[in-house]
Amino acid sequence: MTIETKELEIRDELKRKVEMICKFACAKPTIINGNIKSIKETNIAYVMPHIIKINNINYLMFNKCDDIFINGYNEKIKFKNLKDYIKKHI
Known about the structure:
Layout: E1 3-7, H1 12-24, E2 30-32, E3 35-39, E4 45-48, E5 50-54, E6 57-61, E7 67-70, E8 75-78, H2 82-88
Antiparallel strand pairs: 1-3, 2-5, 3-4, 5-6, 6-7, 7-8
């Protein structure tokens, strides 16, 4: 069994939006690109989202998605509410 990993680049537009939101919220983000892990010769794949670390909280984001997952997939917020969420958890 061979696992192939391909890194996904975060879209420039999404990166700029995140950086602008963090600037207004007085926070410094650390952005980690997501990736796709697939098992060769099968149709099995796992998409790892982009991870934005802000104040020890991991925000999981996918390109072209309005939802942001907080520290896993149990809690989510809308992208438009990110600034308020960051400010509340500083």
